Amino acid sequence: MGNLNFRPLWRYEDAFIEGILNTLWLTVIAAGIGLIIAIACAAILRSGPKLLRYPVLGYIELIRNTPPIIQIFIVFFVFPGFGIRLPPFTAASIALALYFGAYAAEIIRSGLDSIPRSQVEAGHCLGISGFQVFMHVVLPPALRNIYPSITSQFVLLLLGTSIASQISAEELFHTAGVVESRTFRSFEIYALIAGIYVCLVMAFRVFFAALGRLAFRWPTRR
Amino acid sequence: MRSLSTIDLIAFATGLQYTLLLVLMALAFGAPFGLFLALLRTANMAVLRWASALFLQVVQAVPLLALLMFFYFGLPVFLGIQIPALAAVTVAFTIYTAVFLGEIWRGGIEAVKQTQWEAAASLGISRWQQFRYVIAPQAFKIALPATVGFLVQLIKGTSLAAVVGFIELTRAGQLASAATFQPLLVYSVVAAIYFAICFPLTLWSRNLETRLNGSR
User: Fold this and answer.
1) Which B residues 84-123 touch A at CB under 8 Å?
2) How many distinct structural domains can be found in chain B?
3) CA A42 – CA A106 distance, rounded (Å)
C-alpha cells in the first residue's frame, strides 16, 4: 500500500481551476449551440418539409448510435482535410454541440408530442392564432415535461466533455493528465478529479432543481 | 504511409471481438451488482436505501473516463501492484454498468404496485420469494426497454477503453489511422461498425417500449 499524498497537487491549484473553468465553458458552449440545433431539428421533424425530415432523422440516429469519442475524432480530423485547422477546443465544442443537439432534439420532440391533441384543439377554439396556441397552450406544459430530461442530459454532457481531453482540448481532464505526468501521483489526481466532477454535477443538480421549482410553479392538474 | 487495406479490416474485426468481450464482462459482473443495488434501493430499511442512493448518485456523477483512469493508472500505483489491463478496465465498466442498471431496475421494481408485494406476502412466502416470483417478472418487463437502451450506451462506452491503450475497436481504429494517415476514412468505418451494432438495439428498445405502453 502506498501512502496518500495530496500535497504535490496543491502547487497546481491554478491549473485545476483553469481546467474547471474550461470544462464549464466547453459545456455551456456545446449546450447552447446544441440547443439551437435541437430546436431547429425538432421544428423540422414536427412541421418542416418532408424532404428535410430524413436528413434530420439520420443525423439524430447517427449521433445517438456511435461513440462520442469517434465523433470528436471525426470532427477534429475532417476540417484539416478541407484545409482548415481548428484548435482542439473549437473542434471539441463543435463535436459536443452536435452530440448534445441530437439528444436534445429527441427530448424536445417527445416533449412537444406529449401535449394531447385535444388540448391544442381547445386552444384553437379560443380563436387565437396557431402561433399563439403554440406559445400559450403547447409550450408551457411541454417545457415542464422537457426540463428534467434536458437538465440531466446537460449533466451527461458535462461528464462527456472529459472526452475532449483525447484531442488535447485543455479542459479539466486534460489538466489531470498534465499534472499526473509531472507529479506521478496518479491515485490522488484521479480521486481528486472524480471528486471535482461529483461536486460540479451536484451543484448543477441542486441549481436545476431550484430553478425548476421556481419556473414551473403552476399546479399540475386541477 | 499505406492505404487502408484488408489487414486493417481484420484488425477491426479483432478489435470488435474485444469490444464485445468488454460488454459481456461488464454485463456478467455488473448485472448481479446492479440487481443488488436495485434491491438495496428498494429495501425496507431506510439506512440501506439512503446508503445505496448516495453511492449511485456519486458514481453516476463521475465521468466514465475518470473511472477508467482511476482503476487503470491510479489504483495500481497506490496499491503498488500490477493489474492486467483487462482486469482494470473490467472493474471500471462493472461499476459503471452496476450503477446504471441499478437505477433502471429500481425504477422497474418501484413501478410494480405495492399491493403486489402485499398479495405475495399473504401467500406466506419469504421476502426473497416474493421478489423472485411475483415482483421480478413484472419489473423485468417494465425495465427491459431501458435496459436494452443502456446496452447501447455501454457498447459506446467501451470505446473509452481505447484511452488506456486497451485494443478494442476504437483503439484498432486509432492504430489504423496512425498507420494510414487517413483518419477520416478510418473513423468513418469504425463509426459505421458501431452504428451497425447499436442501431438495431436502439430499434429493438424502441419497439419494446411501444409494445409495453400499448399493453398497459
Assistant:
1) none
2) 1
3) 7
